[in-house]
């Protein structure tokens, strides 16, 4: 019985999603922001039931086999949203504030490709 419990615990531990690191490294060309030839890269890493980057943490607002939506509403009265399509390896990000709604021509959206690093 003791060996069976150890075996079951080992199987659960080995196949638990929190055991595997999940990191997305996403890049975009900054030409749409008037910075031709420049590349920006972000890295978000799963930390339990959230993702973190250099600036803080993102809540997982939606997750499926093909889509990951992360949100953060804690920085400077903005709402940050990151979409990651796990199938196509595309990502997009937007930062919203009241100023974006007041502006006739809102800021361009971030868009690029991701690599999944496990």
Protein architecture, described:
- By secondary structure, the protein is an alpha+beta fold.
- The protein has one domain.
- Helices cover 16% and strands 47% of the residues.
- The chain contains two helices and eight strands, in the order H-E-E-E-E-E-E-E-H-E.
- An eight-stranded antiparallel barrel has the order 1-2-3-4-5-6-7-8.
- It is globular.
Which structural class matches the secondary elements? alpha+beta
**Helix-strand topology string:** HEEEEEEEHE
- Write down the Rg: 18 Å
Biggest sheet statistics? 8 strands, antiparallel, barrel
Low-confidence stretches: 1-19
- Helicity level: 10-25%
Looking at this protein, list some descriptive labels.
118 residues; alpha+beta; eight-stranded antiparallel β-barrel; 8 strands
């Amino acid at each position: 019985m003791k060996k069976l419990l150890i075996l079951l615990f080992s199987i659960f531990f080995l196949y638990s999603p929190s055991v595997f690191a999940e990191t997305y490294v996403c890049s975009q060309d900054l030409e749409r922001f008037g910075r031709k030839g420049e590349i920006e890269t972000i890295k978000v890493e799963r930390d339990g039931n959230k993702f973190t980057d250099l600036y803080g943490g993102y809540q997982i607002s939606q997750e499926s086999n093909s889509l990951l939506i992360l949100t953060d509403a804690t920085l400077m009265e903005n709402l940050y949203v990151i979409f990651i399509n796990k199938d196509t390896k595309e990502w997009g990000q937007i930062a919203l504030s009241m100023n974006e709604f007041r502006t006739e021509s809102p800021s361009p959206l971030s868009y690029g490709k991701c690599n999944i690093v496990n």
